[in-house]
C-alpha cells in the first residue's frame, strides 16, 4: 500500500519501465528518503519516436545522442550508469510495443532517479522510462512573455544537465507569465540576455538568417536545435549561434521554440510583439516534420526503427533512416 | 508493491507521518509522475526537539517560526498549505510519542511534496514528516573547503526557500571538497563572497565581534542564527550581519557553522587556515545548548514542550520555555 | 503659434513659472533642438505643500533639501544653476498664490530644462515650475508587480539624479505590469535585488522592524524616506537601510511606497503576495500625515509656510514648523 | 509666443517638417508637460543623403532600413506610428527640396516625440524631421579616451532603440574625456568590454581582419556598419562581429568610428595609443564614400534618389542605386 | 657587482634591514629568478613612527596590528613567516636608531620577498625593511579623478592582502588621471562603486556623518581607518561602513583619504566636484595628529616607543601610549 | 655582495643577457626599491627554439610575434622599449650560442623589469633574458582541477599583458588544486566560464571540432593557439573561438593545454572527468611538433634560425622556415 500517491500526469499509461522491467505505471514510486526527493537528484531525457508516413515503421530520433546526453548528465552529477546503449534502446522498444497506438506518436521520458546513497557516496540510481502518446496535428502558435526569473549560470546549476531542479525556476516563470495569459515564458540568463523558454530553445529569424543562443548563454545543449541546423543548412539558410538580447527577440521577424516535444513550434507573440507565421521558420518546421516522418533524409540525422506497424521489434540496425 | 524503492536514509524509523496519519516509514513513496519528482517541487523544514536536562520534558525549538517559514516557502513556490499550526504541532507530538527514546533527541523533517497538479495549476501537496534520532554528544570540529560551485541568486533559485533543488549544487560542492578530505563545503555567492555551507550558515569571530552574512548574500534566513544572535547579545558580544569575503573568512580568529542540526558547530579549518577552538564561538555554543536543555531562558526564544518523560503529549501552551 | 503642442498633463493649470515669471501654462514649450529634447537633459524635483489642519497656513515640506538635491542633480549633470534658494522659494510662493484652492494641497514640479549649449559646452538651463492640485483623501492600497526591466547602476545612469531619462525604463516597467492589472512596478537593480518602484521607494515591515534599501541599491536618495525614518524612530520602531531581495519583499508582513507624492502609500499585493494593512506602516503613514498637517512636530523635519489662508505670502522664516 | 526657447542647434535651417507639414524651424516646440520632456520619450533616426559625383541626383542611403528601425524603436517603446514608409520618404523629399544647396549634403533627424498620453496609455507621437547641411570634405582623425561611464544593458535602457535617453550617459562621457583634450569617448559595457563611442560604433583592424562588437555588447544595431561589412567583403577583408576588450582596442593596428554621420572616421588615438592612418580602414572609408557618391554599387546597399539637381522630387522607384 | 640596478626610490637611506641584519641599502637586491619577481610574490606593510611633541620619544603606531596583518597577508599567500613579533619590533628599533633624525618622522616598509621555492613548494621569504624620512608639515589637499581601471574582487586578487600585484592596476589608474592633472585616482570596484584610492581609503562626510566603504567593497582592511573610527566616535561623530556610489562621492560635503602614509589627507576635488576643507574631516585629521604626537590618548589605539630622543632603544613595554 | 639572494629556478644556467650583455646568471638582481618589486612591474615573453630533426639548425618560433607582443605588453603598461627587433633577435642568438646543448631545446624568458621611475614617470626598464633547457620527450598527460580563484577581467588586470602580477592568482590556484593531487588548475573568468590554465590555454575537442575561448574570455592572446589553428585548418578540422562553460569542458571528448612551453599537452582528467588520448588533439600535437622540427611547413608559421649545429649565428633572414 502506498501513500501520497495521486498521479499527476494527465495521461495514465498502463506500463512503465523500471530498470528494464515492465511495471504497472501507478506502482512506480520513490521512497521519500531517497536523494531523488531530498536533494532533487534525477536526470532525464525527453525522446520522441515517430510513425513514418506509411504507418509501417515507428522510429526514434537520434537515440544515441540522447543516450550520450543522459550519460553526460549523470556523470556531471556523479550518478553512475548501469546499462548499455543497447539495453537502453531495447527497453524503449519494449515499452513502445506495449504503449503504441497507430494514430499517435510517442514521447519517452527516461529518468535516472537516485534511490540510494548520500552526498555522492554509494550512489545508486534507477532508470525509469515513462512514455506518453502525442497527437500528430500541428500545435497552435504560442504566445510568450519574458519572466523576471532568471536561468542559472553553469557554476550554480548547469543548464547542460537535464535535471528536475531546473524546473523549479521554470515553473515559477511559467506561473508568472500565465497570469498574463501567455502560454510559456522566455527566461533571461544572468547577463539579461535570452536563455531559453521553460522547456525549449528559442530561435529567431531576421533578414534571411536564423539565430539561436549558444549553450554558453544558459540554454540546453539541444539535440533538436542541432537537427534544425542541419535542415536549415540544407535549405541554404544561414544559422547563427550567438547571444541574443531581449529587445532583439522582440524586434525579430520570426520566432520559434525548438525541443524534442516542441519540435519547432512557431511563436506568434512575445510581450505583445508579434511575428510572421509563414516565413523561414514555418518552412523549417515543415522540413523537420518531413524528416521525422521519413519523407526526407539528411546526413547527420538518424531515426532508428524500434517497432514495425504490428508493434513488433525491428532488429537492431535495420532500416535506420540516416541521410 | 513498489519499485525503485531502496531506502537511502541511514536510519529506518518505524513510522512517519503523512498528512497527519502515522504510516510505516518504508511505505512512504511518491509517484514518479508527481511534480515532487519531475520538477523537484518540495519544500521542507528541519526542526529539532530536545530533552531537558532532567529528561522530563521533550520540547521543540521555535516551532511557530518553523511553521511560518514552511508556509512562506510553500507560498513563494505557489504550493497551497492545508493544515493549521495546531495540526502541525499535534502531528509532531504524535510522531515524537512513537519515535522518542530517552537518551536521544529528535530531528524532524516536515516536507511538503507536490503530488498533484502541473505548472502551478491544481497543485496539491502532501505533508510528510520524518524524524530521526540525534546523539547528544558534541560533534568534532569540522574541516571545510571553499567550493567552485556557487549559490544561486534570489531571482534564479531563492535560498530563502528551503527546497530540495538547492541541494543539487550543495551535493556537487560537498563531493568536490570531500575529495580533498574536507567534511563540508563553503559556497560563495554570485558576487564571490561567502554565502553559506551546504546546509548551515557561517559565523566568524574576529577581534571580539561575531559576524555572519545577511540573507541578501544568498544564505538561508536561519532561525538558529537568530537564536544565536539573542544569545550573543545576552553575552554582550556584538553580532553583525554584513557581507563577508572569502579571505576575511580565511583570516578570521574563529569560525562556526550554525543550523538546526549543526546547532553551532565549531570549524577547525577552512582551506588550510585554522581557527581558535575556545573563544567566543565555543562560549556561544555552550550557552546555546544550555538554552536548548532548559537550563537557561532568554526572551524571544521559545521551546514548546511536545511530550513528557513518559512520552505522553503535553497540553498545548503548558510549560513553554520562553525567556 | 506652436506645433506638436497637445498638452498631455491631466490637469491644465492656468499658470506656470518660467525663470521666475508667471507664464500661461500652455505657452511653456521647449524647442526641439534643445538638449532637453535631443539628449533628455532635464533634472527635476517633486515637492509638496500642505494646508495645515486649520486651513490657515500652506507650508512646503523640506524645501531646502529639495533645493539642494536639485542643485546636486544639476551639478552631477554639469548643468549650471542660476538662482538662489530664496529666489527658488519665492517663486514657489508666487505660483502657490495663483494656483491654490482651499480644499486641495499642491504638488510642485520644478524642472531644469537644458535649452542652450551642446555636450556640456555653453550649457544654459531654464527653470520651469509647474504645480498640480492634490486631493487630500487617502489613496487606495496599491497592487504591484515585479518587472523584467532593471534600474540602471550608478555608472550608467545615476538614480541619485532625478532625471527624465530614468523614466524611460520606469514607463516600460509600468506598461508591462499594467497588462497584469497591477498599478505599478517594482524594479530590481543590476544584482537582482529590490531597487524601487517606478516613482517611489519601497519599505517593508517584518517582525517589528521597518527596512528599505540604501541608495547604493539603485534607488533615489529620498527625502520622504528620511522623514519617515525620523517618524519611525519617534515611534520607537527600528528602521534599517539594507539590501532587500525580491523574495524577502514577497514574504514580508507589510509593504509600502514612499515618495513626496505617494507620501506613504500602503501596498496590498506584490506578485500575488498580500500584505497586512493595519500594522506598522499604517501607523507610520498616519503619523506622517499628522506631521504634514502641522498636528505634530519632529526635530529635523521642517515645513516652511508659503502662503496664508488668503493666499498671501508668508514672510520668510515666519512660522516654520520644525520640531 | 514661446518661452524657454533659445535654439541650441548650431545651424538654424528655415524649415522643419512636423507630421508632414513644413513649419518654420524656430516654431517647432514641445510643451513641457509632454512625455517627450517629462519621461524623455522620443526615438529618432539619423539619415544621410548624398549628392552623386555629378551633382545631378541627391539620394538617401538605406531609407527603408532607417524607417524600419524607427518603427522598431517606436514599437519597443510602445509608441504608435501614424505614417507609412511612402509618406515618410515623401516628407524627406519635401524637406530636402527646401533645404538643399548644391555644394553640401544633408543629414536628416526624423524624431518621434511623445506629445500626448501617460505611461503608455493614449500615447500620441508627432514626427518632427529636422535636417542640417553637411560639408563634403574629410574630417580629421579623431582622438578618443575611454570613459568611466558605462553603456546600459538591454534590460535597463536598450541601445537597440535610438532614444534621447541614451545620450545622458553619452554626454557625461564626452564631458569627461574632453577635459583630457579628447574629441570623443569610448564607452564600455556592463562587462567592461568595448560598447561604442558616444554616437558611433567602433571598428578595429588587426592582422588583416576588421572587427566590431555585435549588438549584444551594448552597441547600436548600426546600418552603417552593415554597409561597411558589405564593402569589406567586397574588398575581400574578413569582417568579424565579436566582443572586443579595452586593451585589445588599445593594441589594435587601426581604429575607426562608424555611423551615419561619422561615415567611417579614422581614429588617431585612444588613451594615448596611436593607430595607423593608411591601412584597411582608410581603404574601407574610401570605398564607402565612392558608394555613397554613386561611383560604386554593391548588392544590398541602396541609395534612393529624393530630388534631382534642380531640387525637384524624383519619382518613387526611379534610379535607386542598388548594387 | 650587480646589474639592472638603478635605485628608483626618491630617497637613498644608508641602511636597510634584511632578515634582521643591517645591510647597505643599495646592496639589497633580489635575483630575477625568485618568485618575488617572476610571480610578483611579495607582501608588505607600511608603518609609521612619530616623534612626540616634545621630541623625546619616537613611537610607532599599532605595530602589533601591522605585524598581524603582515602575517595574515603572508598566510593567505602561503608564505611562511620566520620571525616573531618581538624580533620584528626589535628590527624596526634597530633601523630607526640608524636612520632617524630629530626633525622628521619615519615610514617603514617591511616587505616579505619570496626568494626560494616554486608554486607554493619550498617557499622561503626574506624580510626586508626599508624606511624613509617623512616631513611633519601638512600636505596640500588632493585633487582626484575616477579612473576606468577597477579594483579586483576577492576571488581574483584580494585587496585584503597588501601585495605588490595590487599596484599594477593602481599605477595604470594613476597614470590615467595624472594626464588630467589629478594627483591620484579613485578606483571603483567590480560593481562600479567606490573601492579606494590607489594607496589609501576614501572617507566622505555628509550631513554630520562620516562614511567609508567596508572591506567587502574591495578596499584594504585599513588600520588607519580603524583608528580614525575611534577618534570620530570620541568626537561624537557617527562613522558608517557602507557601500558608497561614485555619484554619492561626487555629491558629498567633504572627502578625505586615509592611510598610514596619508594619515587623513583632505581632498579638494574629485572629477571637478569640490569639497569643504574645514568640516568634520579637518577636525578628525587634527585630532588624529594629536593622537600620533602623544598629545591625546584613546582606548584601542597604541603607540609603542621604539627609541628615545637620543635614538637609544626604549625597553619593551615601556611607555606605550594607549588610551 | 648581495642579499636575499638564493636562486629559486630549478636550473642555474651560467649566463643571462642584461640589456644585450652576457652577465653571470647569479648576478642578475633587482634592487628592492625598483618598481619591478614594489609594484610588480615586469612584462615578459616565453619563447621556444627547436633543433630541427637533423640537429643542424636551431630555430625560434614566431619571434616577430613574440617581440610585438612584448612591445604591446610594455606599451599597455606604459613601459618604454629601448631595443629594436633585430637587437632583440641578436640577443637571443648570443644567449643560445652560450647555452645550447645538442640534445635539448631551449626556452627563453625575455623580461622587462622596471628598474627606474615612479608611477609612470621617468620609467626605465631593463631587458633581462634568461633561458632554460628543455627535454625533447613527450610530457605525460596532465590531470587538472578547476580552482575557486578567478582570472581578472580586462579592466582589472589585463590577461592580454603577460605580467608577473597575473601569476599571483595562478599560484593560489595551483596550490589549491595540487592539494587534490592535480598537476595544474583551470581558472574560470569573471562570468564563471573557462578562462585558461595557470600558464596555458585550454582546447577541447567534441564531435569533430576543436574549440578554445577567445581572448575576451580572459585568456592570453596566445601565439601557440594561433599556430595550432593553422595546423588544425591544414588538417581540415574546424577550429572555433567561443565561450566554453565549465561543464562543457568536463563533458568534452578531449582536452589539451596550449602554450609555448606546453606546446599542446594532452589532458587526461579535469575534476575527475577523463578524456580520450588519441583523438584530434593527439593528432594536432603530432603535427605541431613536426612543424617545430622543420618536418612540415605551413603558411603563416615561421621558424627563424638562430644558430647552426655548431652554435654559430645564422645570418639574419637565412633559412626561415615559413610555409
Average of per-residue pLDDT values of chain A: 94
Based on secondary structure, the structural category of chain A is alpha+beta
The largest sheet of chain A is: 9 strands, antiparallel
Helix content of chain A: 10-25%
User: Unreliable runs of chain A, pLDDT <50, ≥5 residues?
Assistant: 1-8
Amount of beta strand of chain A? 25-35%
* Radius of gyration of chain A from CA coordinates: 20 Å
Question: What does the oligomeric state look like here?
Answer: homohexamer
- Largest inter-chain contact set: A-B, 69 and 69 residues
| General form of chain A | globular
Count of helical regions of chain A: 7
Number of strands of chain A: 19
N- and C-termini, Cα separation of chain A: 50 Å
**What is the helix/strand order of chain A?**
EEEHEEEHHEEEHEEEEHEHEEEHEE
Amino acid at each position: 500500500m502506498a501513500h501520497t500517491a495521486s498521479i499527476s500526469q494527465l495521461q495514465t499509461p498502463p506500463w512503465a519501465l523500471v530498470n528494464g522491467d515492465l511495471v504497472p505505471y501507478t506502482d512506480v514510486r520513490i521512497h521519500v528518503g531517497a536523494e531523488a526527493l531530498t536533494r532533487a537528484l534525477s536526470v532525464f531525457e525527453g525522446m520522441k519516436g515517430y510513425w513514418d508516413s506509411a504507418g509501417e515503421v515507428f522510429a526514434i530520433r537520434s537515440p544515441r545522442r540522447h543516450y550520450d546526453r543522459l550519460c553526460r548528465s549523470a556523470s556531471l552529477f556523479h550518478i553512475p550508469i548501469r546499462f548499455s546503449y543497447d539495453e537502453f534502446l531495447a527497453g524503449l522498444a519494449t515499452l513502445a510495443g506495449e504503449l503504441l497506438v497507430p494514430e499517435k506518436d510517442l514521447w519517452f521520458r527516461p529518468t535516472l532517479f537516485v534511490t540510494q546513497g548520500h552526498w555522492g557516496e554509494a550512489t545508486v540510481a534507477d532508470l525509469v522510462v515513462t512514455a506518453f502518446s502525442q497527437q500528430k496535428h500541428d500545435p497552435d502558435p504560442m504566445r510568450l512573455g519574458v519572466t523576471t526569473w532568471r536561468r542559472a549560470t553553469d557554476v550554480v546549476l548547469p543548464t547542460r544537465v537535464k535535471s528536475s531542479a531546473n524546473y523549479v525556476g521554470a515553473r515559477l516563470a511559467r506561473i508568472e507569465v500565465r497570469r498574463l495569459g501567455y502560454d510559456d515564458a522566455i527566461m533571461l540568463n544572468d547577463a539579461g540576455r535570452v536563455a531559453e523558454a521553460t522547456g525549449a530553445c528559442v530561435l529567431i529569424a531576421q533578414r534571411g538568417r536564423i539565430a539561436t543562443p549558444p549553450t554558453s548563454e544558459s540554454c540546453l545543449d539541444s539535440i533538436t536545435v542541432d537537427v534544425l541546423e542541419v535542415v536549415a543548412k540544407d535549405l541554404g539558410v544561414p544559422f547563427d549561434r550567438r547571444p541574443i538580447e531581449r529587445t532583439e527577440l522582440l524586434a525579430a521577424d520570426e520566432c520559434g521554440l525548438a525541443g524534442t516535444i516542441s519540435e519547432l513550434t512557431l511563436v506568434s507573440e512575445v510581450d505583445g510583439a508579434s511575428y510572421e507565421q509563414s516565413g523561414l521558420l514555418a518552412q523549417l518546421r515543415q522540413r523537420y516534420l518531413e524528416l521525422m516522418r521519413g519523407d526526407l533524409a539528411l546526413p547527420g540525422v538518424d531515426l532508428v526503427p524500434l517497432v514495425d506497424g504490428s508493434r513488433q521489434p525491428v532488429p537492431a540496425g535495420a532500416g535506420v533512416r540516416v541521410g
